[in-house]
Amino acid sequence: MPQSTMQRRSLPWRAATALGGLPYALLTTLLLTVPFLACAPAQEPVVEEAAPEPVRVENAALGIAISELASQFDVADNGESIVLQRNEGEGTVTVTAQAPEIGGVNLIDLIAAAKEDFNSRPGGEYHGQVELGSQLGTAFSVRGSYTAEDGSSVEERHVYSVHPSGDKALVVRYAYPQGDLDDTRARTNELFEDVFSLIEALAPTPPVAAAEEATSESDSV
To answer: Which of 165, 178, 214, 217 lies in disulfide reach of 153, CB 3.0 to 4.6 Å?
Structure first.
């Protein structure tokens, strides 16, 4: 057989072995990988959980609402007053309304009463007042401290403002363990930003809806 013919016939064999068997190894890898990919279970898309809806705290007795409950507070009571309890650490916020005994709302009288109350308690001390501008108009913040019955030191921050109805005062009190000045600042910001600034008037029943409800009741009699 001519040498040129032998060279042409041996080319396929020499090409297959010229790279040390790599084409065979590559083919084997592909044959093993493709069935594995075909049989592997499809991965389900990752679904991100939606953020929880904000909790609105409404109180018909007080005629107000806290538009969004801060995550660090739980509602302990929502009857004649709103009581919020801190779910981490100690601290209680109480929201009440106080009608004047005579005349109109006088926030200065409430400040004077708070000062007297703090100074009359065991270890009591009145730390002063600050005038504020707020969504409810002019408000006053006072701070005092005292010794509780169990011997612990308690600090309170009060905010006095005129109720949205205009005929009574809105009083927000925050009581917590007394700490250093940094803790006082943090608690003050928490009260203002996470509670007081979110208080608004409870929307009254729309006149149209009220009229329809009254008509429905009269029809059913």
So the answer is: 178
